[in-house]
Design brief:
two-stranded antiparallel sheet; mainly alpha
C-alpha cells in the first residue's frame, strides 16, 4: 500500500468536504445565529486547509489504485470527515467524544443522538445534522466522484468500497456518470418529498430537514419527539412512502425513470423487501391490538415504524418503547435485516439474507445428497462461490462486532436490553433501540468508552465491516510504502467486495 497516495486522495476528499459546511452557515445567518455561522465557516476552512496540506505533502495515484489503497482511502476519508463534521458541535459546547459521536451518527445515517435538550441548539445546527445524513445516505465519496474529474482515475475502487451491499449495477460505462446518475435520482426524490411535506402542512424548514434525513435513511429530526411531535398523519404517510423508496436499490429507480417499467417486479431482492414490509406491518398491527386505535391508525403506525426500522431510518411516529413485548420483538428482528443493496439503508441488506437462507437450505439438502451439484441462485443466475464466501464472512464478522459492542456497553453500566439494542442500532445504522436508547431517549448518559466503541461501530457498519476490518491484518502495514513513488503494481481485477455477476 502506497501511503502517500492514500493521504493524497483522502486530502482531496477532505478539502471538498469543507465546502459542505457552507449551506448550514447560510441557514444559520438566515436565522440570525451568527455564532453558529462562524462555527461552520471556521470548521469548513479548517477542513479544507487540512485537506490541502495532505494533498501538498503527498502525491497523486497516477493511473492505478490498488485494492487495499481503495479500502484505506474510503475508511480514512470517512473518519476524517466525521472529525471535521464534529467541529461545529465542539464550538457549540459539546464534549469532543459526544461531538464525534453525533457527527459520525449523522454521516453514517445512524440517527443515534447524544443531545439531551434540543433547545440548546439553533436551526443551523439541526440543518447540519440533517445535511450530514443526506450526504452519507448515498455516500460522501460517491458525491465527490460525481463532481470531481480527478477522482475518476480511482473512482471505481472507491465507489465500490463505499457502496452499500453486494451489487453489480453498472448504469453507465463510466463510474463518474454512474455516481452522477444515482445522485440525480437521490436529489430529485428529496426535493419531491420536501414539496409533499410542505403541502401536508409542515413548515418549510422542517420539511427540508425531514426530506434530507428520509432519503438518507438517517432519521435525525429537528423535533425532539421526531415525527410524533407534529401530530400530522398525512406527513407520516408521506414519510412512510419515501422511507420505502429510500430502502430500495436506487439503480432500480434510475432504470425505471429510463423506461424499464417492469424493473421492480423482476428484481428478486425488491420483491422480498416488499413482502417483508407488508408481512411485518400486518403482524405489528395485529399485535398492537384495538387499544392502539382504529385499523387505519394501527396500519399507519405499524407501517411507519416497520419501515423506519427495516430501512434503518430510525424515525418514530410513536414511542414503541411502550409497546408490548410481542410488537417490539418484531422490530428487534427487523434490526438484523436492513434495506436493499444499493439503497441508502444500513444493516446487512435483504439480498444477503436471501443468499444465506438459500445457502443454508442447500446445505441441508447436501446432507441428504452429498454428491449433488446444488448451486446458489439469485434472479436466475448462479452466485459465484467467492461472492457467497464473502457474504458468509460478512455475517460472521458482523455478529462478532455486534457481540463485542454489546459486551463492552453492558460491562460499562448499561442494562442488557439497552446494551443489546444499542449495539445493533449503531452497527446497523438504525439509531433508536429499546429502554434507555428508545425513540424518545438518547445516548448521552453512556460511559465515554461506550460512546467511542459505538462510534466505531457506526463507522464499521456503514462501510459494511469488511472495508474496515480488511485493513487490520499486520501484513497490510508491514508492506506499506510510507515514502517515495513505489513500484508499479497492476490493479486488482475485481473491485473491493466481490460483486454478483
Amino acid at each position: 500500500m502506497r501511503v502517500p497516495v492514500v493521504i493524497h486522495l483522502i486530502g482531496t476528499i477532505l478539502r471538498l468536504f469543507g465546502l459542505t459546511l457552507l449551506p448550514p452557515a447560510a441557514v444559520a445567518l438566515l436565522y440570525a445565529e451568527r455564532s453558529d455561522a462562524a462555527a461552520f465557516l471556521v470548521s469548513g476552512v479548517a477542513a479544507a486547509a487540512a485537506g490541502q496540506l495532505m494533498v501538498r505533502a503527498s502525491r497523486a495515484p497516477g493511473e492505478d489504485l490498488r485494492r487495499v489503497e481503495g479500502l484505506a482511502v474510503v475508511a480514512g476519508a470517512w473518519v476524517l470527515a466525521a472529525h471535521a463534521g464534529a467541529l461545529p458541535y465542539v464550538w457549540a459546547g459539546m464534549p469532543p467524544v459526544d461531538a464525534l459521536f453525533e457527527s459520525m451518527s449523522g454521516l453514517t445515517t445512524t440517527g443515534a443522538t447524544v443531545i439531551r435538550d434540543f433547545g440548546e441548539f439553533g436551526r443551523g445546527m439541526f440543518f447540519w445534522r440533517s445535511l450530514t445524513q443526506w450526504l452519507g445516505g448515498m455516500g460522501v465519496i460517491a458525491l465527490f466522484i460525481a463532481v470531481l474529474p480527478r477522482l475518476g482515475i480511482a473512482g471505481r475502487q472507491l465507489f465500490f468500497a463505499e457502496a452499500p451491499g453486494p451489487t453489480d449495477e453498472k448504469l453507465t460505462p463510466r463510474i463518474r456518470k454512474t455516481a452522477a446518475a444515482l445522485w440525480t435520482v437521490y436529489a430529485g426524490l428529496t426535493a419531491l418529498e420536501a414539496i409533499a411535506l410542505v403541502a401536508a402542512g409542515l413548515p418549510l424548514y422542517d420539511s427540508v430537514c425531514h426530506a434530507l434525513t428520509t432519503l438518507g435513511a438517517g432519521g435525525f429530526s429537528p423535533h425532539p419527539q421526531s415525527l410524533m411531535g407534529y401530530r400530522n398523519p398525512a406527513a407520516e404517510w408521506i414519510v412512510t412512502g419515501f422511507m420505502f423508496l429510500a430502502g430500495a436499490n436506487f439503480a432500480l429507480h434510475y432504470r425505471m425513470l429510463r423506461g424499464e417499467t417492469h424493473v421492480f417486479r423482476r428484481d428478486e431482492e425488491f420483491r422480498v423487501y416488499l413482502v417483508l414490509t407488508v408481512a411485518a406491518t400486518v403482524l405489528v398491527a395485529i399485535l398492537l391490538g384495538p387499544a392502539a386505535g382504529t385499523i387505519v391508525d394501527r396500519v399507519r403506525v405499524a407501517s411507519f415504524q416497520v419501515l423506519s426500522i427495516l430501512t434503518t431510518t430510525g424515525y418514530a411516529s410513536a414511542d414503541f418503547n411502550l409497546w408490548n413485548d410481542q410488537s417490539r420483538a418484531v422490530l428487534v428482528a427487523l434490526m438484523f435485516v436492513g434495506g436493499c443493496a444499493g439503497s441508502a439503508a444500513g444493516g446487512p441488506k435483504v439480498v444477503r439474507q436471501i443468499l444465506v437462507a438459500r445457502y443454508s437450505l442447500l446445505e441441508l439438502r447436501r446432507t441428504l445428497h452429498p454428491r449433488g451439484v446444488l448451486p446458489v441462485k439469485l434472479g436466475g443466475r448462479v452466485v459465484p462461490e467467492d461472492v457467497m464466501r464473502e457474504v458468509l464472512v460478512f455475517f460472521l464478522l458482523y455478529l462478532a462486532v455486534f457481540a463485542v459492542c454489546t459486551v463492552v456497553v453492558v460491562a460499562l453500566g448499561a442494562d442488557l436490553v439497552t446494551g443489546f439494542t444499542a449495539a445493533i442500532a449503531t452497527l446497523g445504522n438504525i439509531g433508536p433501540g429499546l429502554n434507555v436508547v428508545g425513540p424518545m431517549g438518547h445516548y448521552g448518559d453512556f460511559h465515554p468508552v461506550s460512546k467511542v466503541v459505538l462510534t466505531a461501530a457506526m463507522w464499521v457498519g456503514r462501510l459494511e465491516v469488511l472495508t474496515v476490518l480488511a485493513l487490520l491484518p499486520p501484513e497490510v502495514w508491514r508492506s506499506a510504502q510510507w515514502a517515495g513513488a513505489g513500484a508499479h503494481v497492476p490493479r486488482a481485477p475485481a473491485p473491493a467486495g466481490g460483486r454478483l455477476s
